[in-house]
Design a protein that fits this description.
Blueprint lengths: L1 E10 L2 E11 L4 E5 L6 H8 L7 E6 L2 E2 L5 H7 L1 E4 L11 H7 L9 H11 L1 H5 L10 H13 L5 E5 L7 H16 L3 E6 L2 H7 L2 E6 L2 E7 H6 L1 H8 L2
Parallel strand pairs: 3-8, 3-9, 6-7, 7-8
Antiparallel strand pairs: 1-2, 1-4, 4-5, 9-10
The chain binds adenosine-5'-triphosphate (ATP) and magnesium ion.
Length: about 230
């Protein structure tokens, strides 16, 4: 579904990604793990068209989308739920969700709103509340719900568990499995190593703009370097 090869990207003279190759098949959950500042968000932004790569190619559903705009990527069925939630604080929950269907699945907006409220009952209770007054976990659910309003084929989640309580983190990972079971491919970018390895089919580990480890999650979990560096074992 998504195939990227030789991707390099950065900010002005600063190179951040130094040649990234990865692929995501339909129906997979793929995790990208890595510490602060290694380039995870940069990679997400390259895939969703926010940042143009300086080298390499990106294919989505067989189409060469290297350098395509974010609007084009949404139109093709890629939803990006950015880091830090980025909801509209002065709009209601309902209005935020409706905006998710602005570019795609517009005609199905009413039906999909009901589906989102079924998936996130907390949002139904708070449909008229200003989004900026939601709790952190509720804002994260709203950001994901808004992404799903476009009926995507694949969703990028940038650190969905960041800043959530342990109970909410569990809920978030269950939700990731649920939306995947409904047919979406998921690119899950996380620092929550153990739980990500549990839900992901395959995992890539990013360090300083390179993948240093990749494979089936069960095999990645056995890697001695990963256990030492990320799990302190
Ligand atoms: N707009 C920007 N201008 C200049 N440098 C940037 C910009 N955005 C990010 N960077 C730098 O690029 C590097 C990678 O940042 P990125 O946000 O991709 O990391 P990350 O892996 O997502 O980290 P985190 O886990 O903290 O979110 C960092 O050194 C960061 O300071
Ligand atoms: Mg980031």
């Amino acid at each position: 579904m998504l195939e990227i090869s030789g991707i390099r990207a950065g900010y002005g003279p600063v190179a951040v990604l130094h040649g990234i190759d990865m692929a995501i098949q339909a129906g997979e959950i793929v995790a990208v793990l890595g510490s602060n500042g290694v380039g995870k968000t940069t990679l997400n932004n390259v895939i969703s068209g926010i940042i143009k790569p300086t080298a390499g190619t990106i294919r989505f559903e067989g189409e060469d989308v290297t350098g395509a705009s974010p609007a084009h990527m949404v139109g093709l069925g890629l939803a990006h739920v950015p880091e830090g939630r980025k909801i509209f604080p002065n709009l209601s929950v309902h209005e935020n969700l409706e905006l998710g269907a602005y570019r795609r699945a517009t005609a199905n907006s009413a039906r999909n709103l009901e589906r989102m409220y079924d998936t996130f009952p907390r949002l139904r209770e708070r449909r008229t509340q200003l989004a900026g007054t939601l709790s952190g976990g509720e804002q994260q659910m709203l950001a994901i719900g808004r992404g799903l309003m476009s009926e995507p084929r694949m969703v990028i989640l940038d650190e969905p568990s960041l800043g959530l309580s342990p109970v909410m983190v569990e809920e978030m990972f269950r939700l990731v499995q649920k939306i995947n079971a409904e047919g979406l491919a998921v690119l899950l970018v996380e620092q929550n190593v153990v739980q990500s390895l549990e839900v992901a089919t395959r995992t890539y580990v990013l360090e300083q703009g390179h993948f240093v480890l990749e494979g089936k999650s069960a095999d990645v979990l056995k890697d001695p370097n990963l256990r030492k560096t990320y799990l302190g074992l």
